[in-house]
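# nightly structure sweep
# worker-07 picked up a monomer target from the shared queue
# config: single-sequence mode, recycle default, output format = structure tokens
# input follows
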Amino acid sequence: MASSAIQYFNFNGNAGGHFGGTVGTSQAQLPSNPGTRMVMIKADPANTDNIFLGKTGLTADFNATTGGFPLDAGQESPWMPVKNTNELFVIGGAASQNYSVLYLQ
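# output follows
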């Protein structure tokens, strides 16, 4: 029998959680969720501009040094390995951009 290409991970029996937020043109750190292993962020489909993901010092542009990973309205990030959701920052290209976060522990 051929082995499956799908891998399943045991996250200590914890499903993790989800939360949402609104961001403007100033960077915001995601809230703390220690023990996180993977995180995915989705931009609200009704957003009027991009949101950008990155580290502290993040800017809402495509600058090679400070610019973040852009998400168009309705777009989601890939699963990203982190130890805590607060390792990530988000910033909007305009005021009042919404996002949702799903994390696994």
